[in-house]
Structures are given as structure tokens and as C-alpha cells.
Write a structure and sequence with these properties.
The protein has 201 residues and is an alpha/beta fold. It is 34% helix and 12% strand. The chain has seven helices and six strands. The protein has a four-stranded parallel sheet with strand order 3-6-4-5. The protein has a two-stranded antiparallel sheet with strand order 1-2. A hairpin with a 5-residue loop joins β1 (2-4) and β2 (10-12). The longest helix has 17 residues, at 97-113. The relative contact order is 0.18.
């Protein structure tokens, strides 16, 4: 299949990469796994066995007028342990290569079928100026979305980083998680060729 570029040319891409059926369950599973893997999971509280003290009974069982207590490390006391103490936890989930590739193809195919992928010949600026980036994006009729190039031009990266709802990455940085966050993608012909070659093989 062919995808037209903004310059009037066409880029030949594989039907299996940009024309596949959308698989929402697979995309959800892979995106959720990527989000969970990014979680730190480093929270940690002290339980009643971790806090200092608590060896002796605070006061006698009867006659004091107070409720009975066996240890100062009880959660009801100040400086006592936490009842259900949080522990460090690894939230990462395994996603094999075939699932990851399938999710990436699925999202790319959906974007392509919706006409949300715009292919251009090059993505470059002569100065790292946000105003120039805005002018370029206006010419492309592009208000929010993802910019992709083979190797991201430094001037483009610096120019768009202050723009809300715009992100620029190189072709290696394209992931299912990143693609589902944007409704439009502007990609260079070289980058879409590399994506096609990588996913079709």
C-alpha cells in the first residue's frame, strides 16, 4: 500500500504494518504493562515490628482507668507502627516481543486508517525558535500530536519543547504508549520507511 506525502510523493509501506486490524485488547495490555513498569514501587512504611521500643507493657492491665495496652508499638499510639504498612513492590509486567510489535502495528494501522498520519519530506529548522516551530506546524495544519524523524533535529527538539500537546522523538522512540497519547502524527518519509522495515520483517 502507498501513503502520500505532503510534497505530493508517495511512500510504499507494508499492508501488514499500516493496514492491520485494530486489536484494542492487545493495545490495552501492552500500554498498561508499560505504565506499570514505569512505577517506582519504592514506598515503605514501618509496621509495629519495625518501630523502636514496645518491649514492656505501658501500664498494668487493670485499675488504671485506661484501656488495656500491651505495647507502645501498637498503631493506636503516636510513633507506633502502621497497621497495613506499605512495602517496596515491583510492578513490572512482562511483554514479549511479539505482543509489543503487534500493539505497535495495531496503533499505527488505526492512525493510518483515520488519516491521522501525515508524511513529510523533512523535519528541520535553521534556528531553535519556538516561533519558527509554530510557523512550521501551522503550515502543516498541525496543532497537537507527535513529530517523528529518523534522527531528531536538535533545533526542532528545542523549538517544540515549550509547546503544549506537541512532542518530538526519533524513530527509535516510537512506542505504543506514546502513540496512544496523540491523535495526529507527522513523520518524515525516512522515518516511516524505517518503521515499516523494522515491523514488516
Amino acid at each position: 500500500m502507498e501513503i502520500s506525502t505532503a510534497g505530493g510523493k508517495t511512500v510504499e509501506v507494508s499492508e501488514t504494518v499500516f493496514g492491520a486490524e485494530y486489536n484494542p485488547a492487545l493495545v490495552h495490555q501492552v500500554v498498561t504493562a508499560m505504565l506499570n513498569t514505569a512505577r517506582a514501587g519504592t514506598k515503605n512504611n514501618k509496621s509495629r515490628s519495625d518501630v523502636a521500643g514496645g518491649g514492656a507493657k505501658p501500664w498494668r492491665q487493670k485499675g488504671s482507668g485506661q484501656a488495656r495496652a500491651g505495647t507502645r508499638s501498637s498503631p493506636i499510639f503516636r510513633s507506633g507502627g502502621v497497621t497495613f504498612a506499605a512495602r517496596p513492590r515491583d510492578y513490572s509486567q512482562k511483554v514479549n516481543r511479539k505482543m509489543y510489535r503487534g500493539a505497535l502495528i495495531s496503533v499505527l494501522s488505526q492512525l493510518n486508517s483515520a488519516g491521522a498520519i501525515k508524511v513529510i519530506d523533512e523535519l528541520a529548522l535553521d534556528e531553535p525558535k519556538t516561533a519558527k516551530a509554530v510557523t512550521l506546524l501551522n503550515q502543516l495544519d498541525f496543532e497537537q500530536g507527535l513529530l517523528v524523524d529518523v534522527e531528531l533535529d536538535r533545533n526542532v527538539f528545542l523549538a517544540v519543547r515549550n509547546l503544549p500537546h506537541i512532542e518530538a522523538v526519533d524513530v527509535q522512540g516510537v512506542t505504543p504508549l506514546l502513540l496512544v497519547q496523540f491523535s495526529q502524527v507527522v513523520i518524515t518519509a525516512g522515518a516511516i520507511g524505517q518503521l515499516n522495515e523494522r515491523l514488516a520483517s
